[in-house]
Amino acid sequence: MIRKAVIEDLKDIMEIIRETIIEMHSYNNYQWDENYPQEKDFINDIKNDHLFAAESNGKLVGFVCINEVEPSEYTGLDWCLKEPAMVIHRMAVNPVYRKNGVGTSLMVFAESLALQNKVRYLKTDTNSLNTKMNSLFKKCGYSFVGEMSFLGKESPFYCYEKILK
């Protein structure tokens, strides 16, 4: 089940972030660290109704932020469409629940949410070293658009798009 996240979810969200950062750093992906994302980012997402939580048997197992906020770094990339898009940010799945379709479910949810809001275009990005998210985007039918510098990180971020039917 996927639902809007609430403030009471913060403890579980931050634990998933902590575990995800440890894992990312184990393969030299420093996309996330002590500076980003922070609890305040998720509080803001929740207050704006942009954060969604995936649950399994009453336990929060993943989350995603979905909104229409495009990073300024997206400017200059060769996006297919010049129309409003929903953007996928800050997505993670509890490592214990990976390979159970949680990530795919969150991506499918993003598509449904976009269509409910009469938006037929999705954009997203991830660090080039984040092999798991890059694979998930490709598996879910996203097309590679290009790369950008982001968050002052050394390695580039890969940008993706998907036009919904």
Look up the CATH topology. Answer: Aminopeptidase
CATH class: Alpha Beta
Radius of gyration: 15 Å
Sequence stretches where pLDDT stays below 50 over 5 or more residues: none
Strand order of the largest sheet: 1-2-3-4-5-7-6
CATH architecture: 3-Layer(aba) Sandwich
SSE order, one letter for each helix or strand:
EHHEEEHEHEE
Structural summary, described in words:
The protein is an alpha+beta fold. The protein has a single domain (2-163), classed as Aminopeptidase (3-Layer(aba) Sandwich). Helix content is 30%, strand content 28%. It has four helices and seven strands. The chain has helices at 10-26, 39-47, 102-116, 131-139; strands at 2-4, 51-56, 59-67, 86-93, 121-127, 143-148, 157-163. The chain has a seven-stranded mixed beta sheet. Strand 2 (51-56) and strand 3 (59-67) form a beta hairpin. It starts with a strand and ends with a strand. InterPro entries: Acyl_CoA_acyltransferase (IPR016181), GNAT_dom (IPR000182), NAT_camello-type (IPR050769). Pfam families: Acetyltransf_1. This is GNAT family N-acetyltransferase. Residues 1-165 form the N-acetyltransferase domain.
Q: Key features?
A:
transferase, single chain, alpha+beta, 165 residues, GNAT_dom, seven-stranded mixed sheet, Aminopeptidase, NAT_camello-type
